[in-house]
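queue> holo job accepted (2'-monophosphoadenosine-5'-diphosphate)
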Amino acid sequence: MRPSGRSVVCGIIGDPIEHSMSPSMQNAAFEATDLDWVYVAFRVAKGSAESCTHAMRALGIRGLNVTVPHKIDILPFLDSVDERALRIGAVNTVVNDNGMLHGYNTDAEGFVRALDAHGVEASHKPVVLMGAGGAARAVAYSLADRGAQLVILNRTPERAAALAMEVAEAMGAMVSHGTLDEDSLSEWLPTASLLVNTTSAGMSPNIDQSPCPEHLLHPGLTVCDIVYNPRRTLLLRHATARGATTIEGVDMLVWQGAIAFELWTGLRAPVDIMRATVEEELNRVGG
Ligand code: ATR
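queue> job finished
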């Protein structure tokens, strides 16, 4: 549908932003649901999160996705923040209800929905999480929320220890931690049911990297990579070769977008169309 004088506007703020898949994915979703809505990418420099909240109210922008470097900075300027986003300390979706701005974190819920869509049961099972950065936080909280026995391994072990302690305290869960190396992986992986990569190892242009040696992967594992460019990372290709089940980063990208779509529109998201659009876009850029 061509934009009109009545078009409702949504968008994404971040920097860099030009490679975001969200405009294609969300505009395809609006079109598929016959909504006169448009979604645009705004390149917004660090330090301008507060201005964006004023702009949202002044321009009547219905929804924003929020990405690096604003996910944490925007929190104090919202009228309410969902409990889960508050716990994670980061917001990636804002809904504007007549000038009242509500913040959510759909990364965490998107991750859980991707697991559900693949029938992965995380509760009371050992889960190894590789990485301790921003992406790891949302994943760690959602896994602890599901009752997983979490082990956080990171190249810089101090960051793994800090995240583990924080999640353990906030969720009343037992969380182990260590260095992301072959020794720790060989200690934890044999009994693990789920391995999640939140590091940037394997992400384009470093497509020859994998955060885990191939020989440690086994058929009892589900391996989930949040990297979506390329779609089949070296880690996921190794996992398939070793008989493990795989969940692609595209799944999580699509589910976090689907939940944002539902928060803004109140409609069920056309998930298959959103996924097809992202896949098409990734094929176009060579993912
Ligand atoms: P994000 O918000 O995307 O998680 P980040 O906060 O910069 O980004 O975190 C990147 C994560 O990838 C970190 O856990 C980082 O490990 P360090 O804490 O040791 O820096 C991890 N990482 C990046 N490149 C890596 C590599 N080549 N091997 C292993 N871990 C890597």
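queue> Residues 113 and 172 are 23 Å apart (CA to CA).
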